[in-house]
Amino acid sequence: MNILRKMEEGKCSIDELENLLEEKNPIVLYHAMTHIGKEGIRTEKIIKKIK
Questions:
Q1: Cα angle 18-15-7, degrees, rounded to a multiple of 5
Q2: Helix, strand or coil for residue 13?
Q3: What does the pLDDT read at residue 2?
Q4: What values do phi and psi take at 25, rounded to 5?
Q5: In 3D, which of 25, 27, 20, 28 has the Cα closest to residue 50?
Q6: For residues 32 and 20, is the Cβ–Cβ distance under 8 A?
Q7: pTM of the prediction?
Q8: Helices in the chain by DSSP H: which ranges?
Q9: CA–CA gap between residue 2 and residue 44 (Å, rounded)
Q10: Measured between alpha carbons, how far is residue 44 from residues 1, 34, 51 in Å?
Q11: CA 12 to chain CA centroid, nearest Å
């Protein structure tokens, strides 16, 4: 399944989102960060990767 579709459908796990923060593709990274912000996901691992 396409990762962007998974995010739109709410089927993307927090672990997948954490891993996407290491993505080199700026479009995928943008969508992951936008989804994290919209959903208010605040895990310690995500916060460290964003910093």
A1: 80
A2: coil
A3: 86
A4: -75, 115
A5: 20
A6: yes
A7: 0.82
A8: 3-8, 14-20, 26-39, 44-50
A9: 26
A10: 27, 17, 11
A11: 8
Q: To 5 degrees, how large is the angle CA 45–CA 48–CA 51?
A: 150
**Amino acid identity for residue 49 in this structure:** K
**Measured CA distances, 48 to 3, 39, 42 (Å):** 22, 18, 10
Polymer length of the chain: 51
**What is the token pair recorded at 43?**
């895990």
Amino acid letter, residue 47:
I
**Per residue of the chain (51 residues), what is the pLDDT tens digit?**
588 888 889 899 999 999 999 989 999 899 999 999 999 999 999 999 888
Amino acid at 12: C
